[in-house]
Design goal:
Layout (H helix, E strand, L loop, with lengths): L14 E6 L2 E8 L3 E5 L4 E4 L11 H7 L7
Antiparallel strand pairs: 1-2, 2-3, 3-4
Length: 71
Amino acid sequence: MSEVGGAVATPHAAMRRLRAQGQTWTVYELPHVALVFEGAFEERHVCGYPENWRTLDNEELYNLSGGVADR
């Protein structure tokens, strides 16, 4: 079973939170620059991210960060 958990509501529509690999990740967009994944101990930047990143399920979104969700 995947550890990528359900989305957490956030006050900003361009931000999402997900849980993967034992930590909570905050995901937000720096428009036309990068998609940022902030974890407690790590930050990842993804350039060339898809426009539909907000509609990806949590596992697809986490995999986009370069991580691989547990199964």
